[in-house]
Amino acid sequence: SAVHHHLIRRGLRTSVGLVVETGEAREVHHFCTLAGYGAEAINPWLAFETLEDMLPQIEDNNLTAEEAAKRYIKALNKGILKVMSKMGISTYQSYCGAQIFDAVGLSSEFVAQYFTGTNTAIEGVGLEGIAEETVRRHGDAFGHNPVLETALDVGGEYAFRLRGESHSWTPDAVADLQHAVRGELPEKYLSFAKTINEQSTQLMTMRGLFRIRDAKEIGRKPIPLDKVEPAAEIVKRFATGAMSFGSISREAHTTLAIAMNRIGGKSNTGEGGEEVDRFKPKKNGDSMRSAIKQVASGRFGVTAEYLVNSDMMQIKMAQGAKPGEGGQLPGHKVDATIAKVRHSTPGVGLISPPPHHDIYSIEDLAQLIYDLKNVNPDGDVSVKLVSEMGVGTVAAGVSKARADHVTISGFEGGTGASPLTSIKHAGSPWEIGLAETHQTLVLNNLRGRIAVQVDGGLRTGR
Prior knowledge:
By secondary structure, the chain is an alpha/beta fold. The chain folds into 3 domains: 2-142, Aldolase class I (TIM Barrel); 158-228, no CATH class; 230-455, TIM Barrel (Alpha-Beta Barrel), CATH 3.20.20. Helices cover 40% and strands 9% of the residues. It is built from 18 helices and 11 strands. The strands form 4 sheets. A 5-stranded parallel β-sheet has the order 5-6-9-10-11. A two-stranded parallel sheet has the order 1-2. A two-stranded parallel ribbon has the order 3-4. Helix 6 (108-114) links the parallel strand 3 and strand 4 (119-120). Helix 2 crosses helix 4. The two termini are 39 Å apart.
């Protein structure tokens, strides 16, 4: 990136090709960032050597090192093409040096010098911190650590591994939560909350860097608990993640709906529609009806009957867990029930297009909001946006389009249908998007016209 920008400033960039030779590039994201900051070609020599080293462990005796490298390159090409398509870029030449990234956790001085033009909303480490981390990694590889001396780092980037990358959902946290719910044990919930809250303060989340100050610290009198809004009212603002019953199963989906209806909160259908028999209450008084009905780009299951049986209709413009990408339900999951609700064919995979093909401007969005309000005049209309730089401007447009509610979706958001290439490094923390949205709405005198909600990785009261 530094060389790329230096050559641009000298007016020499078009005369030079940049080739990066590195042992660190392994995954699709690594190649995308290198290309995004100016690399015309990349030689991941360590990945090729690793593949060659793994050949004896593979059952296919006919597989040569050359063929393995070809397959690896093909997989990377597909991954890079997917990222390019998410961003609406059709050629590698357009993507090269496009810098379609936001920086999170890097100092603005460092970003300005080495990643000129990249957006960053918060401060973080600089060159010194990165050098220290690099030396530490080198020490792990070539040092005398008894654990790492004879074995590679366990990783744990995508799933929890002992001594691996830190994750919010650890086996202990999951066990505590299950015991708390199944055994109705408050002490187990407190143990779960303690585990999660301690993680937050250990640089796991951005909100963990904030400390809640008490009233005395800011020169105010504490308020008696009986004057504070009761918990029974607070939980009415809770909503579940938007995941279709096709992705997480009917049992999980209906259980979430019943639970939220019991406490007065709202469950969300996700983009897969909802069975008609769930619109009527059960004999015991429970309701399996989801209060929020989602309208996504594929319009799966969206009918007039579906919309009138909602308290809120949510237009999903983007999803925090995989922005720029539609839901993907593989064919083996599409059984007769799911196909009936989605008005499709059993056994055939369903992919929602990344954009809404009838929304290409704020006026188009206003038209859809108007149409939804005509179908269900009693329901609110929500628009779901992804947390990123510039989301505040979009939220202001959503407010002017007469939406009642906007959701800012963070990168920790749940998804029942996300490929591995989208789980990491896509979207940003909701804290950044929320701050920008609130400030932009206030500056434009729009904050009183719209309710703002966030989703993504909210696990405890803190």
